[in-house]
Design a protein that fits this description.
This protein has 177 residues and is mostly helical. It is 68% helix and 0% strand.
Length: 177
């Protein structure tokens, strides 16, 4: 029993339960008095996402031009785009949410915009449908499973490795053990 909160139902949430549902919009990062109106803030966030999305989608499209995939072949280009995008997301989220204080539009621009436009799970669905349409259900199932497993594994691994690499250094810089 916590001395300040004898009733467990009144105890404030801790850990991930205390985090806002969407930190990009739930936190007021602008200094008092200079904060834009809610409509302007939404416009700034949407503009950052759109600008980042253009860059990410162009990078993805460029990769598919450089490394095209035949309709009946395993879609390696899309697979590696998704894996590398998830790896970058694991690193990015640790750096901008746990290590550095960044501009409030960084996460929507890089995370939702650039990496959201770069990774292409909708294209992986089309690739799977194309494999099924060409009589390659085994390859289609392998592709779906490999994409999901690799995406989850690489985002977890890169986030964990990034934490190991940068967070001890951050504690040392602050003089903690």
């Amino acid at each position: 029993m916590h001395p300040e909160y004898p009733d467990p139902t009144t105890r404030p949430a801790t850990g991930w339960q205390a985090e806002p549902a969407d930190p990009d919009t739930a936190v007021d990062p602008w200094p008092a008095g200079t904060a834009p109106s809610p409509g302007r803030r939404q416009g700034e966030i949407l503009s950052a996402i759109a600008a980042g999305g253009v860059l990410g989608a162009c990078a993805r499209y460029g990769a598919t031009l450089i490394w095209p995939t035949a309709p009946t072949a395993f879609p390696w280009t899309t697979f590696w785009i998704n894996v590398t995008g998830c790896a970058a997301m694991g690193v990015l989220m640790v750096l901008i949410t746990e290590r550095f204080t960044v501009h409030p539009l960084t996460r929507p621009f890089l995370g939702t915009g650039v990496l959201g436009g770069y990774t292409t799970f909708s294209t992986s669905t089309i690739d799977t449908q194309r494999l099924l349409d060409h009589g390659r259900p085994g390859t289609g199932l392998l592709y779906v499973a490999a994409t999901l497993v690799a995406a989850f594994a690489v985002i977890w691994a890169t986030a964990a490795l990034t934490r190991l690499a940068v967070l001890p250094r951050a504690r040392a810089e602050r003089g903690q053990a």
